[in-house]
Each structure stands twice: as C-alpha cells, then as structure tokens.
# Entry
Amino acid sequence: MLDNDGLYSSPLTAPDGSSVMDRRNAWYSPPEWAVCPFESGQAPVRTSAPEAVVLDGRFVVRQAIRHGAKGGVFLAEDRLSGAQVVIKQARPHISATLQGQDERDRLRHEAYMLDLLGPVGVTSRKVSLFTQGDNLFLAQEHLEGTVLTDWAGEAKAAAPDGWQDAALTAVRALAGLVGAVHERGFVLRDLTPNNVIVGPDGSCRLVDLEMAAVPGTPVTKAYTAGYAPPEQVRGPMYGPAAGTEADLYALGATVLHLATECRPLLGSDETPASRSWDARVRRLVEVATR
# Structure
C-alpha cells in the first residue's frame, strides 16, 4: 500500500485491528504483540561471533541495507581498494517474464547503464558484476549523500531563508543529468526523488537505472505513481518504451516535490473522466504552491 508519504509499505494487522508498519529490519525485531517462536522469547543467543560474509572472495559485507524477494542490497568493503561499495543482489526466476527474463537480466542491464553513464558522472561507477551460487551481484561505487526525497526537507530546515538557491542548483544539476541520458539515446522511465542522490557539495547523481530503455523498444511497463504521464500510466503492460517526454514529466513532478514537499499523486475523480489529466495536474500545482 502507499503510505502518507507516497511510498510503498507493508502493513500488519494488530490484535486490536489497527494497522502497524511491518519494519523488516536486518535483525530480529518482531512487534511487541507477536508470539515469539522461540521458547526463551528471544532470538537464539550466539555462542560465537558470526563470520563476515564475503562475496566473490573480495567484498566483505558490513551492513544489510534492504532485504526483499528480488534480492538484498548491502554495504560492503572492497578488499582490493579499501573503498565502500553498494552491492545489489538479484535472485533467479524472480519476476520472470514470457520473454524468459528475470531479475538477473534487469541487474545486467543496470550494470550496462553504469558502464555507459558512470564515467560521465551521471550515476555511480560499476565496480564488478559477478555470480555467486545462482545469484547475480552488482557492486557499484558508494555515493555519499542523501536521497532528494529527504534532502528537500533537510535543506529547508538548515537554511529557511536561503534554501531556494540550493534547490535551484539541484534542479539545474538534475536537468543536466536527464539531458545527458537523453543524449545517449535512453529514457529513464522511472525518475523520482528517491532515485536522485544529492551529495554534500550539492551535486546530484542518479541511481537505480535498471528501467532505462531506448524509446520505442519493447519493455515491461514500469513507473512510480505521481511521476509518470498518462500515456505511460495507461500504456500496455508490455509495449514500446515511452519517449523522452515521459522523463520531462517526471522531472517536473520531481521539481514540484522539491519546491513544495508535496507528493504529486493524482487521486481519482468521483466521476471518471470529469476532468482532463492536465486539469488535475494544474489543480494539484495550484494547491501545492499556495
């Protein structure tokens, strides 16, 4: 479900019928009202320190950032360089399509986009793409900074009277990144504030580029609610990739969020088709910028 911030979350139903967030931490943290499956009521106590997880004989996993059915995302240390890297995992047969592709193919495509756009500063650089067991892993440069979703509020809190200059700098940088992607013949298809990292110096980088495609090529539909134009939302589940205008719509929605901290979600009218898409967007902007 979508939470109040417009992000996907997984709720649980408590004994009293209320909904609580299912916080899937990387450690044992059940809700207080959940019955513990262990006799002691606590997670089993380790008798020895856990061994570090090493991937590809090179990357020492230091932290689990996220776990999911598709695979995890981890923060690791590269033994060769000593640098921090982010490692994405893709499990086999997950999100398989009729075309014979699964999450591993999407991760290979993301690795290709890093090779193409990393050296020109659009995104992080690829460090390594490797297989361990049946899983595919992509190690990439760790980007210091904050996702644009959070940065907007932090910038306003840090400089209430001068955050507009920082925001304008970020918008110009982001527009340049989108333009660089388009110049290389691709459309992002899923540009949102969650896919932009703002560095300590105010620079921007794009992340999670697995949905990028050449306009017009056959792809599975992908978008984030509020950041996609009607032709992308209403398009077929499998069909031609949207053109660059889809990214321009997403860029505008991202700028709206940056300026107002408003999620650009368009609720359905009580009477379907009573207003055009443009009219609904215009009304959203009017309300958000009051």
About this structure: The longest strand covers residues 59-66.
